[in-house]
């Protein structure tokens, strides 16, 4: 499903840039291929994006995560209209725009990750134990990436970032609460102080993200 999300986001981004259907398909990751993609090659993207929008975002396994993104972006009406095929891709460009593409990607993946975690909790035995650990680590790494990539961003971008934190993980809730208030290297280090392994990881990697 994660690769499906990457494919959907890539196809939307290409569609917004008016790329041809064949060029869009050439960028698809085979690991995230789904049946509806086959119809894209026969679509006329020069006249309408509604068919593409519906094929990718309504009739696919990741469609519900996109609906949640629209709703969380403050457009319940857009989500409702999209569900009934009433909006073209161009009509929701104010939400799904070039500047919002990574926000959308992270929002979709947050929804998927939380669903995956909930499913794992319904299992038992070694599978639950191992997968819970893996998913908690993945959730924590996503939080850390979001934090370090937005340290120099404006207040609105930082607020957008906070909405993308998964609601589970080894950092959750104390660590994530501390990181919500972090705005520079010093405050990030303070928030990670109780989590020595993550603090050490941050110290090793921060030179790639934090200006010295």
UniProtKB/TrEMBL annotation:
<dbReference type="InterPro" id="IPR002843">
    <property type="entry name" value="ATPase_V0-cplx_csu/dsu"/>
</dbReference>
<dbReference type="InterPro" id="IPR036079">
    <property type="entry name" value="ATPase_csu/dsu_sf"/>
</dbReference>
<dbReference type="GO" id="GO:0046961">
    <property type="term" value="F:proton-transporting ATPase activity, rotational mechanism"/>
</dbReference>
<dbReference type="InterPro" id="IPR016727">
    <property type="entry name" value="ATPase_V0-cplx_dsu"/>
</dbReference>
<protein>
    <submittedName>
        <fullName>Putative vacuolar ATP synthase subunit d</fullName>
    </submittedName>
</protein>
<dbReference type="GO" id="GO:0033179">
    <property type="term" value="C:proton-transporting V-type ATPase, V0 domain"/>
</dbReference>
<dbReference type="Pfam" id="PF01992">
    <property type="entry name" value="vATP-synt_AC39"/>
</dbReference>
């Amino acid at each position: 499903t994660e690769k499906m999300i990457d494919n959907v986001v890539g196809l939307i981004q290409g569609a917004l840039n008016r790329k041809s259907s064949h060029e869009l398909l050439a960028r698809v990751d085979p690991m995230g291929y789904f049946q509806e993609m086959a119809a894209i090659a026969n679509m006329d993207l020069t006249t309408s994006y509604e068919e593409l929008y519906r094929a990718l975002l309504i009739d696919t396994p990741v469609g519900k995560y996109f609906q949640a993104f629209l709703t969380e972006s403050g457009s319940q009406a857009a989500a409702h209209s999209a569900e009934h095929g009433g909006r073209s891709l161009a009509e929701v460009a104010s939400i799904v725009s070039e500047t919002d593409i990574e926000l959308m990607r992270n929002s979709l993946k947050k929804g998927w990750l939380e669903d995956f975690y909930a499913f794992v909790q319904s299992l038992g035995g070694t599978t639950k134990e191992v997968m819970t650990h893996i998913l908690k680590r993945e959730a924590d790494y996503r939080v850390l990436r979001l934090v370090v990539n937005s340290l120099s961003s404006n207040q609105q971008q930082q607020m957008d970032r906070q909405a993308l934190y998964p609601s589970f993980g080894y950092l959750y809730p104390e660590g994530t609460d501390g990181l919500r208030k972090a705005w520079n290297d010093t405050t990030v280090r303070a928030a990670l102080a109780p989590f020595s392994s993550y603090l050490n990881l941050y110290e090793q990697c921060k030179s790639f993200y934090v200006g010295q």
